[in-house]
Every structure is written in structure tokens, then in C-alpha cells.
Amino acid sequence: MSSIFEGFLSTPEVLDAFSERNFLDAMLRFEASLARAQAGAGLIPEAAAKSIIGTCKVELFDVAKIVRESGRAGSIAIPLVKSLRETVALFNKEAAGYVHFGSTSQDVIDTALALVTRNALNLIEADVRKAVAALLVLARRHAGDPVMARTLMQPASVTSFGFKCAGWAAPLARSLLRLRAAGDNALAVQLGGAVGTLAQMQGKGPQIIAHMATDLKLKASAFPWHTQRDEWVALGCELGLLVGSLGKIARDISLMGQYEIGELAEPTEPGRGGSSAMPHKRNPVAC
């Protein structure tokens, strides 16, 4: 999908969080953390870990080439790990054999996805907090400004615009709490090896996972979640609820801002026209 179309559905900051470069950088952070944890557990030589860690810098890799090769390989992990081994071998041939040791493609992809998703969730949370704060300001400012409440689009009774703003803010505030909890559950290190048994870790798998979780600031999952996606689905559901609440606010504003209703209008600068410059029988609230 072209960024021309993606731009209508997201923001530049969130698109950048999921960019090819940032995703490959997150994958390399996984590989560096894995080597660091395995060396700490005595599973691989310290010298090999240092060579791997020192090479896990995204600027050393041809991101576009790795992305192109991923289409043929069927996984972005395959060309990334291949390129990492080749680059490590340039400086330390012995260390190349320990790259991605005991891990599998889904481990690095899932953990990288958790890392970039955390960045995106932080951006979303910051925007929603701003929206809640702005709505609460409007709620206080317009607590006594009457507007018509409606049932099935028909006039029902009088309420205040401040009360409506408080009603818009409440589900967003609840979403922030649920989204944080869902993120804490979903954003976890994935490490299971080929079939989830950590067979090559010589019984040190839990220790390595705990070390990586601390290093990457992710949850240490009690069980490989390679084939268990319920926490990710729950996170997606919370995002869906948030989008639904935001959509409800947008629809309310669009209905209240209709010309023949004129309860709300976009703030405009003098002389620039726009809805608030149009004649109204009453003054609309600028929001």
C-alpha cells in the first residue's frame, strides 16, 4: 500500500514507528539481547556475544535489500539473520556460528513487533491524553451552555455542552486504563525455538527470557506465545474500542455542526470564512 493511502489512516509518527528501518532495528535489538543473555547464562562465549552485539546496528545493513529478499524467502527474519551472520563473520568467523542461536524466525519477528508496537502505543496514549484534557477543559468552560439533547435524532430535552464533553471524555479515559493493561499483557518477549521447547537452551531458557525481558523492557512470558495470540487479539480489541469511542465523538460533532443545527463550529480566523463565519440565528460553540 502506498503511503499516499496510509496517510489517511494514520499519522506520520505511527507510520514511522512501523517503518522498515525501525522494524529491522527492533529485530537487531532482539538478536543483540539474545546474545547478551546467552553469554550471561554461559551458553555462548562472551567474545562471540560481544561481536554479535557490536554488529547489531541497523546502519550496517542494507534495509531495502533485506526487505526485497524477504518476499522470496517468505519471512523477513531469514534474510536479516543471513545478513547478520555474514556481517559478524567479517570480524569474527567463530562468532557467526552463534548468531540467532537456539532461536527461530517467529521469535525475532514477534519480539520486534512487540518493541515497535510499544512505541506506537506510547504515541496513541499521548494523543488520547491530550484529547481527554481538552474535553475536560471544554466541559468546565461550557458547563452551563445549553444544547438540545436528542432521541432517535429528534429533540428530547435540554442538556449542556459541558455535560456532553464530559460524556465524550469518560470512555477515552477508561480506554487509556484498559489499553495500558492490555499492552502490559501482550508486549512480551517471544522465545521458544523451533517448536517452543527451547531445546537448545540446555535448561537455561527461563533465565535467558528473564534477562531479555529486563533488557528490552518487555514482559517475560511464562510460555512461548508463538501459536497463542489471544493477548494480541485482546490488545487489538481495546484499540477497536478506542477507535469506536473516537468515532462516536466525531459523528456527534458532525451532526451538531450541520448548518441547519449550528450548535458547533470549527474555530476560524477572522476573514477566512468557514462554518463559524456563516450566519447563525444563535452563536455556535467553537470547538
Q: Which labels suit this protein?
A:
287 residues; mainly alpha; two-stranded antiparallel sheet; two-stranded parallel sheet; 11 helices; 4 strands; 6% strand
Give the fraction of residues assigned to helices: 55-70%
Name the shape in a single word.
Answer: elongated
Structural class: mainly alpha
Order of helices and strands: HHHHHHHHEEHHHEE
Using DSSP, what is the number of strands?
4
Radius of gyration: 26 Å
Alpha plus pi helix count: 11
Mean pLDDT: 91
Fraction in beta strands? 5-15%
What's the N-to-C terminus distance? 34 Å
Q: How is the largest sheet built, in terms of strand order? A: 1-2
| Low-pLDDT segments, ≥5 res | 271-281
Biggest β-sheet description: 2 strands, antiparallel
